[in-house]
Structures are given as structure tokens and as C-alpha cells.
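== Folding task for one protein ==

=== Format: two labelled lines per protein ===

==== Paired sequence and C-alpha cells ====
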Amino acid sequence: MAEAPDTLLITLTGRDRPGVTSSTLATLALAGVDVVDLEQIVLRGRLVLGLLVTAPADAASADALRTAIEETAHALEMSVEIEPGTGDTPRRSRERAHVTVLGMPLKAAAMAAVTRRIASAGANIDQIVRMARYPVTAFDLHVSGASQEVLRTELAVEAAAQGIDIAVQPENIQRRGQKLIVMDVDSTLIDGEVIEMIAAHAGCEDEVARVTEAAMRGELDFEESLRARVALLKGVPASALDQVYESIQLNPGARTMVRTLRRLGYRFAIVSGGFSQITDRLAEDLGIHYARANELEIVDGVLTGNVVGKVVDRAAKAEALREYATELGLPQSATIAIGDGANDLDMLAAAGLGVAYNAKPAVRAAAHTAVNVPYLDTIMYLLGITREEIEAADAEAGIVTPAPVL
């Protein structure tokens, strides 16, 4: 004679409507069973409700419960399945991770490839949550059973093959805590390079752009290349800096990211190999707490072609991150760094999460994760914040989000 199950798994599916969960639980209450686990999801108006409950002590009570649940489901016009449960089984491993997948678009073939990689790594997908449906599609996969190192290695290969972005992060309480976000400025917070915009006023934009590109690829010493480029700016009137500032375009989603995460207590810093005459104004405009950059020397209203003081180079960026974290009383593991160039590498490595944003290939290869879509606020999906939550917070503050074009 088969041993009676300790638990029963009850699964209802059908059109979502008010009262499905409450009616089902009311039926279970009359049977006197305990709810061990409960999950439900609504997808495009279709509801899947799963309940794991303690099984009645005798066969007659079990039959009565089955009949009552089937009658409730019929009244709700829902389908129902009842089968022996497996108890409150713990997750398969203490190794748990969040795998965030971003695509623009995110095709079914790409998701199939990602899930195959996860399975081949010996991991299990416990839950999938949609983070955004526009302007990028993003999903957060809760994964257990494989180390983060293995998942990162496997999924980095697939991300490159599929042309999508994948981030692997530990599932722990720190993901919900206060953080410090340290950002590069040129080609990260803003579109373009400030030094090239200034160089346009000196008639040497192309020459400066060539040197900048080589420096960002890591082919030149940053300080030497900066001093050489700044020397070409000699004689540019200081008033040109105002014109440059007015022409700056923030990367899409920059304001949204800063204002949303400030509401949650995050702190922001911009650390730039650019110039304080620009970055200080950006910080004030956006509400960024810390700013550090190089200072252009100005004498008698014109640029001298020199910088004042120590150059903010690759090492200085990482040092700034550590300094700000210490001042805030945060561990380095609670920091996020975002950058695109070779001079950001030490900063990305020092952070708890280093994000290569539309970065050079060497930077993408070295960072914890890469984001290659042109929206800076997609960083928030890596932090477990959904597009719906962002828009709801904006609406509460009176900020209207344009309707998506789908």
C-alpha cells in the first residue's frame, strides 16, 4: 500500500480575476490544512496559482478536499491539478545568483541559449521575473546550484554569441542595501568627449580625437596623453567652456537613474579624466554628491594649455572610489563603478560590481559585466528594480513617462 503524501501541490490556471486566491484559500481553510508554500504569477491576463499544503490525515478527508477544490475551481472557471507534493524542499545549493538578461530585442532563441547554458553549468532556474519590456527587454533569473564564476564564464560566451548583455551577481541581502555609484563622465554619463568639444574651438578636434581614442583603448599612458592634448588647447577662451557645457548631451536614462536611486538612499560620485570646470556643474545639475576631475589652468580668461595639480588617472579613479566609500562607511563590496575606457579599469576592479558601459573590448573583457545598450538606466535592472517601479515612483512625484511605442 502506497504511503500517504505529507503534502499536496494544488495548481490552478485560467483567466485572472479578483477573488481566485481568496476563494481557494477559503476552501483550504474549511479543510483545516496548513499552507506550506504559495506562488502565483499573472502573464497577459492568465493566472497560475500554486499552493503546497499539508495533506489531510485520512483518505476520506483527502477525497473531500479534492472535491471541494475541484468545485471551487469549476466555479472560478479555472483548471486545477492536485498531486502529491514534495514537502518544503530547500533549494538545491547554497550557491545562488541573480542572472540578469538584457536584449534589444531579446529573441526567444537567445533566451533558449541562455537557459541551456545555465542547465549545462549544473544550475537550476528557480524563478524568472520580468524587469522591463521597453526600451529594452530585461529578465532577472534566480538561479541556484552553480558557482557565480562558472555561470559568468559560461554566460559571457553566450552573451557574445547572441549579442545580448548578461550580468551574474550573488543573491544576498547586500543587493538591497545602500550603495555608492561611481561613474566616469565622458562617453558614460554624457555622450561624447568634452576635450574634443573644447578642441573644436581650437581647430584641432580631429588630432585630439585620435589621441583620446588610443588612450581609451589603453595604448597610451593616460597622463602623458592628457597633457599632450591639453597643450593643444592653449589660447582657447575660457568662455568656450560655457558653450561646451550647454552643448553636452546626457546619455539616455542618466537623469532617471540618478533621481530614482537617490530616492532609495544611494550616493553618487563622478570621477573623470576630464575637467572640473564641466564636471562640477554636471554634479550640481544632477544632484551628484561627489565630483573629482582635472582642473584646466586659466590665466587672463584663456586656457594656458596646462592642468593644475595631480592628474586624475586610472589609479586615482580607484582611489577616489575607496575614499568615498570609506567616508560613507560603506564596504567596497557595496560600490558600483560604471565606465568605458582603459583608465576606468582599476575603478571597475575595485568596485563590488564593475559595469563596462558601451565600452572598449578590453574593458568589457575585464569588467564584472557589460551593458551595451544606449540606456544608462538599465543599470537599475541589475539592482532588482523594475521599469514599472521606476515609472510608479516618477508618477508619484508628478513626472510623466511617455507611453512606449510597441
Observations:
- The chain has three domains: 7-84, 96-171, 180-374.
- The first strand starts at residue 7 and ends at 15.
- The mean pLDDT is 91.
- The domain at 180-374 is CATH 3.40.50.1000 (Rossmann fold).
